[in-house]
Design goal:
With 132 residues, this protein is mostly helical. The chain has 5 helices and no strands.
Amino acid sequence: MAKKTSNKNTSENQDLGKAFWTGFFWPVRYLLQALKYVGKVFAWVSHKPPLKQIGHGLRWFFRLRAIQFIGRMLGFGYFKSSWKELKQVTWPTRHESFRLTGAVLIFSVAFGLFIALVDYGLDKLFRQILLN
């Protein structure tokens, strides 16, 4: 009887494993079927894309009040205005970038030396005052 019980457990485990993997992969299977369907429906895009019609459709979609409201709620206006601002920026040339970077590095080293000298001087001063 022990053999029958172990055989039954093995078949149950196999059934559970099969059910798990079947359930695990069913979304993938349906997604692949959907992609095949979409590929058949939009096969005409690869031949001669109607860009003008697609542009009109997108423009119509994004002009819907509900879509504009959702965009305002999600804060897409911020990104749109940020992009406009970035287009207006006058970026420095390569020569100006190197010159300004060098100025920052020189100032950083000079300021660091100044702080080190002040720290050293105050350390000597306070040691002399407090220890004597």
